[in-house]
Design brief:
Two copies of one chain form a homodimer.
Chain A: H1 2-9, H2 13-24, H3 30-37, E1 45-50, H4 57-70, E2 75-81, H5 92-100, E3 107-113, H6 123-134, E4 139-144, H7 149-157, E5 160-165, H8 171-176, H9 178-181, E6 186-189, H10 197-210, E7 222-224, H11 233-250, H12 252-283, H13 285-290, H14 299-307
Parallel strand pairs in A: 1-4, 1-5, 2-3, 2-4, 5-6, 6-7
Helix pairs in contact in A: 1-2, 2-6, 4-11
Chain lengths: 323, 323
């Protein structure tokens, strides 16, 4: 294990690939590996890309990847696909990208299914970020299929979120995106040569003016791109860099890391509790009686009955019930 | 409250609408209301509809609704839209449907956002089902936007799941659906007059033959429909009825209700624990030290530190630690 860790720290591609696979498969020795990697985390700029299917997220991420590599930055790409809950396999598009960059040792690309993560960004994604950070990635690009929970989750994982929109995607879609707009740090109007691009930019400007979205005192800029021909990619990166500097100068950079660690820790604790509750429910006769639907069809009443066995849940821990 | 309950039991439309709104808004007196309704639950046939956007789920549900009303069955429709996490409002299409059926007192239609449910089918949906069951609905149709977690969740809520597919939706989409196929009790090939319908049916038959999906000893039938002109709607209903009888005769009907009650109860307990953990984390100095990222960047180590304060989580409850 020690040699794997040192090989990851030297960003040896095969060691990094092996570690990512260990995380993906929830391998038994994953825990030991991660323990040695955590102290190297917290430095990479984690950028999330979200937006409707067809907006050109993959193309933009690909263009940005090429751009960043030219600047000799080490880049990790994680494509999160919440629409495939059963599989952890790579999408066709990612396989193509992987092949294209397969000889470049400064790039790591992985697809992550949302297995076990309730359709959002799961533990695997978070843990893969730790591996990529330890391997010396300067930038980690997270790409989500733009649906549901993953879009909101990305905010808790990424330092900067880019929302990719495109002209002519339909008014109702844009309206439905209103909520998602609140999480964007940078707006990217892709396919900006299509008719309607100017209107879309004006609409976004209008929304931003009417209801300024000042999360962390940052006014999200709007960048036009034509990612398929690498147009505007540099501007997207410049906007993301400005956001990073803003976060660092304002202290939000550090604060987000604190927050993320807290959330991850509490999630782990909740998972342990969940396992305990499942175990207890399948062996404790009192609980089984309380869970019997035929006897008691009200889940609130059943929950109250069971919670009586765990009075500490409602009492502060430094006020123990026993004298 | 008592009068509201009795008015719901008499299926008075305004009382049912008010109860659904109470559940939707998580009103403080919701709990009292539900307590009185639980004993009337467990009788309706809950049918979930899932499938890719554009497959014609809404049209099929609408056609089935008309069909069931002609048979004088009371019907509830819940449209679950996990893509709008921020709003609980109705989609345009549902407003249209609501208007169409607004004078029919045997129909209740509601849209449910996925607010607070991690992109899946949330507590609101489950609780609305209780209200609809108490109001005397014979059938409850659940329609999901076919993405991510809601598709899997529907299995835990519905008695029967219909997967709506359509010809020419693209091979990759069909492949990605492979996982979703496992949860289908009835396959509906909609828009069956489009070219490719026969191929799609043959493909489904092939998949079912090669890898028979015998969840609960049931071989899912394939039904062709053209929902826009009500073609095949009766056949869909017949297939769903056969599935219902299969569940009832095999005992799975009762078993699913037991299972659902157990899951709901455990979820409530987990929510209480989550609230406790959040409270404790914001006031307990020991926990705050353990959660400090700058001191300890490893969430597993932080979780272990905190779990030391709750040894009972790992110990069976009828083996208390204190002598």
């Amino acid at each position: 294990m020690h040699s794997l860790v040192s090989r990851i720290l030297q960003s040896e591609p095969r060691a990094v690939a092996r570690a990512l696979t260990m995380v993906e498969n929830d391998a038994p020795d994953k825990r030991d590996l991660l323990r040695d990697l955590y102290s190297y985390s917290g430095r990479a700029h984690i950028v999330g890309f979200t937006g409707s299917p067809g907006a050109g997220k993959s193309t933009l991420v690909d263009s940005l990847l090429t751009y960043l590599r030219k600047q000799d930055l080490r880049v990790g790409v994680l494509a999160v696909d919440p629409s495939s809950p059963f599989t952890g396999g790579a999408l066709l598009g990612d396989r193509v990208r992987m092949t294209k960059h397969s000889l470049d040792t400064g790039v790591f690309i992985r697809s992550v299914g949302s297995r076990g993560s309730m359709g959002g960004i799961g533990k695997s994604t978070r843990e893969m970020i730790y591996v990529l950070e330890a391997s010396g990635c300067d930038v980690i690009l997270l790409e989500t299929v733009g649906v549901g929970q993953a879009e909101l989750d990305i905010m808790t994982v990424a330092d900067s979120v880019a929302l990719v929109v495109t002209p002519g995607a339909g008014d109702d879609i844009q309206a439905a995106k209103a909520g998602i707009m609140e999480i964007a740090d940078v707006f990217v109007v892709n396919k900006c040569d299509l008719p309607g691009a100017d209107t879309l930019v004006r609409e976004l400007e209008f929304v931003l003016r009417e209801k300024p979205i000042l999360r962390e005192n940052w006014l999200p800029p709007i960048v036009r791109t034509k990612a398929s021909v690498h147009e505007g990619t540099g501007e997207v990166w410049a906007a993301l860099q400005r956001h990073r500097h803003h976060l660092q100068e304002s202290g939000y950079w550090h604060q987000r890391r604190l927050q993320r660690h807290r959330q991850e820790t509490l999630k782990l604790i909740e998972a342990v509790f969940q396992g305990f509750v499942e175990d207890e429910a399948s062996r404790n006769p009192r609980w089984q009686r309380a869970l019997d639907w035929a006897r008691q069809p009200d889940p609130y009443a059943s929950a109250d009955e069971i919670l009586k066995d765990m009075p500490w849940i409602r009492e502060p821990l430094d006020n123990p019930l026993q004298p």
